[in-house]
Amino acid sequence: MKRKSFREAECPVARALDAIGDWWSLLIIRDAFDGLRRFSEIQQNLGIAKGMLASRLREFVKLGILELVPASDGSAYQEYALTEKGRGLFLVVVALRQWGEGHLYQKGEARSLLVDTRTGQPVAPLRLYAADGRAIDWPETRVESKVAERAL
After folding, report:
1. Which CATH number fits domain 12-87: 3.90.1150.10, 3.20.20.210, 2.40.330.10, 1.10.10.10?
2. pLDDT digits over 24-44, tens only?
3. Distance CA 14, CA 9 (A)
4. CA 77, CA 1: separation in Å to the nearest integer?
């Protein structure tokens, strides 16, 4: 079955899922945030097939989510580094993490934890805020179809 492309969809969620919407992609991005930069490190950590990883990494470079940079140890290798566009996915990864923490673990079950490096305390749950600073939830929002005046 051929996968449907959402690259031209009006919905930003559909376009985002077209770029990063499979589990391998999000786990690769998570690993990049966790400091893994080399193909072999990512492949070993995830246990993903080399061809699948190579394909995803090529696509991330093409999309401008990752870039190839000289190895940090000065060797002849190249490493993958998050671009500004890639770093913009941090809140997406945190939101998925927090949803998983809240809904997919039993009380007391072992899990990794995202903490503030300054305090060592767990990060606060993400919230959505209106332009005036009020915390809002989905009932206080709606989707409107229009041409964006500016990129967010």
Report:
1. 1.10.10.10
2. 999 999 999 999 999 999 999
3. 6
4. 37
